[in-house]
Amino acid sequence: MPTGKVKWYDVEKGFGFLSQDEGGDVYVRSSALPEGVPSLKPGMRVEFGIAQGRKGDQALQVRVLDAPPSVAKAVSKAQRKKPADMVNIIEDLYRLLENIEEGYRAGRHPDPKQVKPTAMLLRALADELER
């Protein structure tokens, strides 16, 4: 099976490209990712099958060989946010999530304008918690 590295991957669009060790790029869709792996990060080493798609090579059955070291873990603990700042961030996020919950309870999906900023805050909080 060919091997390579993740060139880039867009979680929201559900696709990206892999760079083969032997050269050339391969298109990869979210459906080719292993179960439990929602996305790929640039630099991850992967193994994959290849099928000929309408627009060129397409990766099948991607298997992650090794992930690049997490940037969040590389940051020293001295650069972590102060606990008081984290309390404010979590309180703000909690209010946002409560508003989304109320909408769901009323049978509505969240306003698309609210979804992206909330998702960005959740990701940022997760990154901060991993430090």
UniProtKB/TrEMBL annotation:
PROSITE patterns named among the record's database cross-references = CSD_2 (PS51857)
Name used for this protein in its record:
Cold shock protein of CSP family > SCO4325
Q: Which SMART domains match?
A: CSP (SM00357)
Q: Which InterPro entries match?
A: Cold_shock_domain, CSD, CSP_DNA-bd, NA-bd_OB-fold
Q: Where is the CSD domain?
A: 1-64
Natural source organism: uncultured Nocardioidaceae bacterium
A Pfam family cross-referenced in the UniProt record is: CSD
| A GO MF label | nucleic acid binding
